[in-house]
Amino acid sequence: MAVPERRDVSEDVGRRRRFDRWRLISPTGAEVVSLRQLSKRERLRVTAPTFFTIVNMMSGLSSVLLAFRGEFTFAAVLIAVSILMDIADGGVARLVGATSPFGLQMDSLADLIAFGFAPAILVHTWALPDYPILSWLAAFFWLGCAAFRLARFNVTIDPTADKRYFVGLPSPAAAAVVMATIFALNQPEAGGYDTSLVVPVIVSFVPAVLMVTSIRFRSFRNLLSPQGRTGWITTTLAALAIIAGLVIEPGLTGLVIAYGYILQAPLGVLTAPVRERLFGTDAVAPRRERMPSVFLPDTDEGDDGAQS
Length: 308
Known about the structure:
Strand content: under 5%
Mean pLDDT: 77
Oligomer: single chain
CATH class: Mainly Alpha
């Protein structure tokens, strides 16, 4: 019988001591391990999603700078780049197993710039330039709703929640409405847009309001993370259809995708009884429940703890 090799404990202690200078302890007692103690391969794995997050942030800021220069079409295109980077960083993080609380916070900060600040500036400079007071209010309102949406998402993450649905319109989808509208109406063949308040107000306020509601929107996570042969075929066909549409008629395709995503929520509610009868309860969104307050702690839980 082979005798198992005894491990030299002193080697482990020495290795830990060498890394102690790179180890940070937060006031809460959480341990933060420096990247310097990881191998190059592991370092690349855990930082890969952050690369896409930073590109997302840079595209959003560049969109703001272009909007101030009046180059609205290019500003809209950069918001589209931010949307693609936001999808990519989440997909890469799940693929390489590099999800972390730091990545979550970093992603939200980037989203606030790309899908909160940048669309707010576009609303101010493009949608309502002839109404100074209203344009300021619209920009403030959009940025506030986006910040609330992202903060609420961060503090209400539930591992047991149905990942097929978002609560409230996701900030990238809201920004896509502004992006698609600007891109479509700024094309030469569009001939500009009506200077009345109808289109600007809809584009500026409706997506912002939807971000802070509790309406369920499909996440289509099955398309972004396909499983099995059928899933990959569906994702490939959807991607090819979108690419073909963007090549043939980019403005119209963007409008269909952006506004179609918003309309799928009310259509889903209207068709829910039929889908539930035909395909079962898994085919419809779960029943909406009242969300806990994100401003105040749960006092009932604290009272129970005090009594016990």
